[in-house]
Predict the structure.
Amino acid sequence: MKDAIRGTEAIRNWNEHKMKLQELEAKYNTDFKNGLSAAIAKSAHERYGDNALTKKIVTPWYCLLAKEMFGGFQFLLWIGSLLCYIGFLL
């Protein structure tokens, strides 16, 4: 919870929308006409890594099916259907 509060406080301190263009260029070490230099881009890539999303852990389909078929209230429905089937056979 403290991390969420810290993140919210950090957002309140954003002021890039009020800065002049020259101040933004100096703050982010870039040039609006030419972009980053090759050396700065390479060092940023080495520091931060690839600009890619992390892979999501995928749950197998049979685990999802078992969770939906036998979780919580569904288990009571299975018991009820089994009792109805037994009653029908008698």
